[in-house]
Amino acid sequence: MDSMPERMTDHWWWLPGMRPGRRMLLWHILLDGQQEVSGLVRRYQDMLAGVGGLDLVPAEWLHMTTQIVGFEDEIPREQVEALVAGARRRLGALAPIEVEVGRLWVHGEGVALGIRPERGLDPVREAVRQAAAETAGVHPLDGEPGWTPHVSVAYSNADGPAAPIADALDRRPDPVPFRVGAAHLVAQVRDGHLYRWEHLAEVPLG
Hints:
Elements: E1 7-8, E2 24-30, H1 35-48, E3 54-56, E4 63-71, H2 77-92, E5 97-107, E6 110-116, H3 122-133, E7 150-156, E8 160-161, H4 163-168, E9 176-180, E10 182-190, E11 195-204
Helix pairs in contact: 2-3
């Protein structure tokens, strides 16, 4: 596990430009059909169920954010089509990737599960990032190319000590395999303490 923070902070602040109902285009890696990974998340959530100040992520909205593209209302449709076409060319040249999910990561705004090898999914990130850069551009909210792939288990909704989380997670399930065979372009909104989205495109590897 990465080092445990001393305190948790509220995850649900608004990034610049975000507001209720405004949709953002992102590339996600989704857990569709990955029962072992979904089951592992559920076991962690069961351990955290009695801890206050956390919003557990519902199974249907589990994801691995891979690349921010930008706000939907700022990107013309033809750029979105070019984005998907560019990602399809690049991802099509990659074989599906096998990694392991389960490295516990408690950060200031939540609880997540990282992967091993830590850079195992970088080719997917690079492919969709290059496609974005050549079409819609890399959005300022995306920051630097550095990326820590993870599946969020729970988001913090309050300021408070992290010790109750550490106590709840004193036993940790073994990591599980995760086969990544596609990236998904989604139009995402923040709905209260939840991220939800509409699927726009599924682009397979290989």
